[in-house]
Amino acid sequence: MTSLQSELGEEEGIAEELAESQRAISIAEFFEKNKHMLGFDSGARGLVTAVKEAVDNALDACEEAGIPPDIYVEIQEQGDYYRLIVEDNGPGITKEQIPKIFGKLLYGSRFHKREQNRGQQGIGISAAVLYSQLTSGKPAEITSRTQGGDEAEYFELIIDTDQNEPEIDVEETTTWERPHGTRIEMEMEANMRARQQLHDYIKHTAVVNPHARIELREPNDHFKYERATDQLPAETEEIRPHPHGVELGTLIKMLDATDSYSVSGFMQGEFTRVGQKTADDVIDSLKDRHYGRELAWQPPEEKKKRDYKAFLEQAVSNKGADATSQFATNVADVVSGRERVSHQDVVEIVDNVADGVEDDHDVTFGSTVRENAVDAVWGLVTGTAEGEDEDAPQEYRARDLYQMIDEATTSRKDDAGIKGLADRIAAKLVREDGHRDRFTYDELAEFVRKSAEDTEEYDDVTFGETARENVLERLWAIGRTVPDDAPDVSEIAGDRDTASELLEAMRETDIIAPPTDCLAPITDELVEAGLKKEFDADFYAASTRDASVHGGDPFIVEAGLAYGGDVEAENKATVMRFANRVPLVYQRGACATTDVVKSINWRNYGLDQPGGSGIPNGPVVIMVHVASTNVPFTSESKDAVANVPEMESEIELAIREAARDLKSYLNKRRSMQQRREKQNKLATILPEMAEKLTEVTGRDELVIDDSIARIMNNVLVEREVEDGTVKVVVENNSDTNADVDVTDIVSVEPQDTNGAQVVEMDGEWFVKWSETVSSGEEATLEYSVDGDAEFDISVEGVEDELLTVNA
Ligand SMILES: Nc1ncnc2c1ncn2[C@@H]1O[C@H](COP(=O)(O)OP(=O)(O)OP(=O)(O)O)[C@@H](O)[C@H]1O
Predict the structure, then answer these.
(1) Is the residue at 683 inside a domain?
(2) Does the CB atom of residue 61 touch ligand 1 within 6 A?
């Protein structure tokens, strides 16, 4: 095999030779070679993708301008080529923008917006132009007329792939009958093998965009989807990113770019849902991570109170007896009244009391006096005061820790073991004077780990993972956030570790979900309506979740189910996927939506699922819509949603919500089916038994008309007519109340109708009566008729399987 080395020659300068062949690649050149990444991998698919890009843009543009979309798509056969025409009634595109939009990849208005749009990257339509010029050699033709413009602009252009810039062949003004809008014509090498996908795309687009009129004209076919509503989707607002889910690189970029000096200003200015309070919480959490916390200890018990006083009095000199005594007493009172105090707590107590005494006695407690007082108290709290034993600092802390460990470990540990652990941790916490017991979480974790290991080795007492974690959490919980200022923005931006601490602080702080006015979900009602429009099923369910966040972008997941009726029963369920109201027709297997559908145990919801995983079988359509300001697609061709855990979990919850309704429906249907079977059996057996009984006993024939209703606990409706009096009796044998609407249709005019509603139509009288009949009760509707009459009854409000009508 020839090596690169031998090809290039042994001599020096290989790097230089290689360097000569290095050059930048324009994005257009890159995609020219990698058009499959944009969904243009074959002629069949290319045509569908081009239609999709143009129609998505048309819908986006119309909605943005508040215009109900009117979209016309035509595909003409031209020898070996196809000509694609897409026309919309949107706001149009200005003359200056047309060349860039169609003749430059990565040029668009949506990439930097946090708002729900179909388009995201600024690649779609220029990629279609690129594909068209590559396969047909012809320029794209664009006509656009802006709202209020007298004339339209007409362009013929291609993309100069070396430069990724438009190359304009023709530019002229023209007339166009549309008052505003855009028309694109492109010729491309294509075929109609993907007709099904094209139809699915157009049809499903119509389902989730009921406000759009869409027409598709093909060489041999013509489809029209009329507008079902003039109501455009709710207008969306652009938002700032949400602190949950921003990535470190993005955060550093934002820190570099912001004008804010303080973290508080940065948080409130650059993120959504952050006010003063939330910013303060994030800052505290950042400080805890950056500086650690100051541990707070129990002050020595009550009898030592006089020691405080004595020490404090010593610390204060020349302030007069009254002021000194008041100061010492008050500080001693406050400290001994606290459950725990940290160094900073002592500083605050001393300052507060000193300020009060200054006011009362007209003396000044300067910083030296205050510092002396703080040292005196802190020395007493931590065992370093004058006269204390050398071991006191460790003993004090160990005593406190002993209690904590004892409470934090559930199973009673050997006393010596607890003491051993407390001693070892305490030893590590004792530092030189002036340390203030300030430790980071990681330091404390290390102390606990090492001390627990030593205790196991030397005292033979084991503290497992949970016990260690509990001890650590308690220790961290007795720590107080330090008084130091948080690092400022430039400091954080310049230090990746601190930026990472801020990121963690942002993620750990409770922050309300992002606003949803940047999103336009379809809503559960319209999801159901959309399914009803397309599938003639027996049952529909839909759910819309609350907004969540991924990567700082909010998203909402919706799911819908259609079951039974005319839905295909032989095969696996149909899974319909949508992102920002765009149907996803390719790469089903690579989509998070499909993965989630497969991972659900559908048997729990009453569907057949061989092996307990995978797409369920049966007459069911599963629809999932992900709406986001930034849908995480697996590739630029936007065919499949990536496996983002937050999104997968919401997809699952949305599907499960709808599936729960399906389960109730199927359970009910099953129990109704069982009732029907039981009733049918009874209807055969009962008359036979009655006949046998009459035969054996020789008594009169038994009347069994009402027996089935009573055995089955049904609502029984009967009519008796005697001497012109009609009685309709509703007998409720069930164990719940029944709200029934009974309509008796009579061939002669009824009299004395006792408040029933009577309507005459074509010589028939409808006697309607609504009643709530309690369980075990009966109600009677009475009226009279003159002469012979024919009757027909209709009962509503009770399911057929729970009703027996003998009338
Ligand atoms: N029919 C149209 N009417 C008005 N503006 C349009 C139309 N088509 C495209 N645009 C504008 O051109 C921009 C670029 O469109 P393009 O399809 O290249 O990218 P996109 O839709 O922003 O994102 P994506 O690459 O994800 O499709 C859009 O952002 C929009 O501002």
Answers:
(1) no
(2) yes
Compute, in angstroms, the gap from residue 125 CA to the centroid of ligand 1.
Answer: 6
Q: Which of 65-69, 425-429, 711-715 shows the lowest mean pLDDT across its residues?
A: 711-715
Using CA atoms, how far apart are residues 65 and 551, in angstroms rounded to an integer? 28
**Ligand 1 pocket, 108 CB below 6 A?**
yes
Ligand 1 centroid–CA 98 distance in Å is 10
Q: Residue 560: CA atoms inside 13 Å, Cβ hemisphere, count?
A: 27
With 70 as the cut, is the pLDDT of residue 101 above it? yes
Residue 58, ligand 1, Cβ within 6 A: yes
From the CB of 286, is ligand 1 less than 6 Å away? no
Statement to judge: residues 68 and 158 lie in one domain:
yes
Residue 345 CB contacts under 8 Å (≥ 6 apart), including other chains: 296, 338, 480
Does the CB atom of residue 57 touch ligand 1 within 6 A?
Answer: yes
The domain containing residue 613 runs over which residues? 524-667
CA of 24 to the centre of ligand 1 (A): 26
374 and 327 share one domain: yes
Kindly give the distance from the C-alpha atom of residue 177 to the centroid of ligand 1, in angstroms, as a whole number.
23
Dump the DSSP string for 400-440. HHHHHHHHH-SSPPPHHHHHHHHHHHHHHH--STT-TTEE-
Confidence of residue 91 (pLDDT cuts 50, 70, 90): very high
752, two tokens: 């004395």
- Residues 615-630 have a mean pLDDT of 94
By mean pLDDT, which of 277-286, 314-323, 584-593, 660-669 is the weakest?
314-323
To the question of pTM greater than 0.80 for the whole model, the response is no
Domain boundary among 342, 368, 385: 385
The CB of 38 under 6 Å from ligand 1? The reply is no
CA of 702 to the centre of ligand 1 (A): 80
Counting the structural domains of the chain, the total is 6
Q: Are residues 96 and 219 in the same domain?
A: yes
Give the pLDDT confidence of 516-568 residue by residue, as tens digits.
Answer: 788 889 888 888 888 888 789 999 999 999 888 887 788 999 999 999 999 98
Local structure of 327: helix, strand or coil: helix
Is residue 2 over pLDDT 50? no
What tokens were used for 558? 């919706």
**Joined tokens for residue 98:** 């047309």
Tokens read off for 344 = 């900073």
CA 610 – ligand 1 centroid, Å: 44
Degrees, nearest 5: CA angle 732-734-735? 120
pLDDT, residue 21, reads 81
From the CB of 88, is ligand 1 less than 6 Å away? yes
Adjacent-strand bridge partners of 542: 560
> Does ligand 1 have an atom closer than 6 angstroms to the CB of 116?
no
Same domain? 176 vs 49: yes
Binding residues for ATP: 57, 88, 109-110, 119-126, 638
At residue 7 the predicted structure's pLDDT band, cuts being 50, 70 and 90, is low
Q: Are residues 653 and 725 in the same domain?
A: no
**110 Cβ below 6 A of ligand 1:** yes
Ligand 1 atom at minimal distance to the Cα of residue 123: 25
157 and 136 assigned to the same domain: yes
555 with 650: CB under 8 angstroms?
Answer: yes
Ligand 1 pocket mutation pick from 60, 85, 132 by most atoms within 8 angstroms of CB: 60
Q: Which two tokens stand for residue 283?
A: 């800052």
